[in-house]
Predict the 3D structure of the following.
Amino acid sequence: MADRYLSFTATAPGRFLTRRLGLPQPAELRRWSSQQPSLDGGLLLLTAGKSDLDLTVTGLPFSSSAPTAGVLLDATGVRDVSDLASVHAALHPVVRSIGASGRVVVLGSPLDPADHHQAAVQQALEGFTRSLGKEIGRGRTVNLVRLREVRAAESTLRFLLSPKSAYVSGQVISVGAGSGSGLGSGSGLGSGEVSVEDPGQPLLGRTALVTGAARGIGAAVVETLARDGARVVVLDVPSALEDASRLAERLGGTALALDITAADAGRRIAEALPDGLDVLVHNAGITRDRRLVNMPVDRWSSVLEVNLGSVLRTTDALLSSGTLRAGGRIVATASIAGLAGNAGQTNYGASKAGIVGLVHSLAPRALAEHGVTVNAVAPGFIETKMTAAVPLFIREAGRRMNSLAQGGLPADVAETTAWLAHPGSAAVNGQVIRVCGQSLLGA
Ligand code: NAD
């Protein structure tokens, strides 16, 4: 279902009218394309407080002359309230000059439990980031990355400072946290210093399986992982086999017809992948909305089974069988409904909150014991068949109630998944990344 309001506001009369009426002004977002893979301009490197980080090692194209498309503000050294003034001093003069669909990334430090002054001002950076994200407009995004060292955050900075992160805003991402002790930076698994033969195809030689991939977000994830070089396995229910096969064939992958709720689904996936698996994307999901008072048990249990039960079972099976090998990635799909709750979705909200619990608990252990990271994407309103079925008024509210005043596209979730799947993202673990344009829900 096309977003007609977005198309209308892109016309001169539409812009004039909606401005006069004080209505939302969604900007057309600049997304990744092979013709335009980078931001349209230079990156400005700024520092607030005293910092020892050397950000030039990221190889990002910093420039003070080109028009500003992105700003990287190193605030890791902000330790007391007076340092916060330097955050204002750094950004106040430049915000206006950042182009449409530009990026602001603030770098912070982990909160120091032994220093409540440092913890207070580093936490202050979160409120700052989220507030700037809400006011900056013109398709520009603002995110905060907490890090200990630069190398491990390289894939994250490249993602956030690119058109690939068009619908990710207001997020706080910790790099290096929850990475466990077993397979740490010494093995290369805990750092970003993973050599990738072809930077354009970082997943070359890796196998990725995406559940519920015949259509919607899953299909976009498969496309994007294949673009990045992965050999893809398109899993969906037997009734969707035709679509799954067509997609797999086009991308040189294979289709796997399987209901993910089957008790032996994990074993059957393992049998289909005798050479092992590197990236497992739990994307299959369903909604069966009703208020709790009207919800029969079958609507409750089918949602819990597809969205959570099967995710837990297949994860366990593929880790314990060794199918998911060291250096592997699990990306599960939560939802902002699981973070904020949503009327009519007690079943769905419960299932998606369960994904968050799974990620937080399993991530450190999976990395320590198997060398596998576990993260989740939490989409907001994404334009798919699932949201096209939502009643008009609620659909319009879903589209506009975020800082970018529009819905996201399946490609936005796919790009976020590809960043988490990247070999250089080994230090990104236990994170739940909202792909929601900074939705007001649960923000
Ligand atoms: P969709 O309905 O378009 O696609 C879901 C796919 O999962 C379908 O191809 C379906 O056949 C498959 N599937 C369902 N049950 C399955 C099972 N038992 N075994 C194997 N495959 C199964 O949905 P979508 O909008 O692309 O959503 C994808 C994921 O993103 C879901 O987990 C959903 O909850 C989540 N999500 C979507 C949105 C959104 O706005 N679209 C928002 C938040 C979260």
Q: What stands out?
A: The first strand starts at residue 42 and ends at 49. The pocket of nicotinamide-adenine-dinucleotide is lined by residues 211-212, 214-218, 236-237, 240, 259-261, 283-286, 306, 333, 335, 379, 381-382, 384-387 (CB under 6 Å). The two ends are 26 Å apart (CA to CA). Residues 197-435 form a domain with the Rossmann fold fold (CATH 3.40.50.720).
